[in-house]
Specification:
Number of domains: 2
Largest sheet: none
Helix content: over 70%
Number of helices: 4
Order of helices and strands: HHHH
Shape: elongated
Number of strands: 0
Radius of gyration: 26 Å
């Protein structure tokens, strides 16, 4: 549930920034009409949405996000993203191992071992995530074929 709370806080902050941008844009447009203008043609004054409205919009977006995350596509994409993060970490650890070997310090082998251990652990996570994405996609393909 902590994830949902973090997501809601992030979405509320996003709604505030969207609202701030909309108010600023409306105010710029109103300023353009500040000189001589025909009566009634200028836009209404801009005001930010009430905090309750921002929170309600954020809750609606969170509900849609959670529905999508629970969907087949959401689960596959989450597994793929996890695999990509782990693969990037494995790559970075491999680069650290290469850098450790290029040094001529007494601890270079220990640094290389630590980096290789991290690379192996990250690669395992990447493989598990890839298998999870495969499993979800294959199950979906079998269901669609039936």
């Amino acid at each position: 549930m902590a994830l949902a709370s973090e997501d809601l806080s992030r979405l509320i902050a996003l709604e505030r920034s969207i609202d701030t941008a909309h108010v600023a844009a409306r105010n710029r447009e109103a300023a353009r009409h500040g000189g001589v203008a025909w009566s009634g043609f200028s836009p209404p004054p801009a005001s930010p949405r009430a905090p309750e409205a921002l929170a309600a919009e954020a809750r609606e977006k969170l509900a849609r996000l959670e529905t999508w995350r629970a969907s087949r596509g959401g689960r596959i994409l989450a597994a793929v993203a996890e695999g990509q993060r782990a693969a990037a970490a494995a790559h970075a650890a491999g680069e650290a191992a290469r850098a450790a070997l290029s040094r001529s310090r007494p601890d270079h082998l220990q640094s290389c071992i630590a980096a290789a251990d991290e690379m192996a652990a990250s690669a395992q996570v990447a493989c598990r995530a890839a298998r999870r994405a495969q499993r979800i996609a294959r199950q979906a393909a079998r269901r669609e074929a039936d």
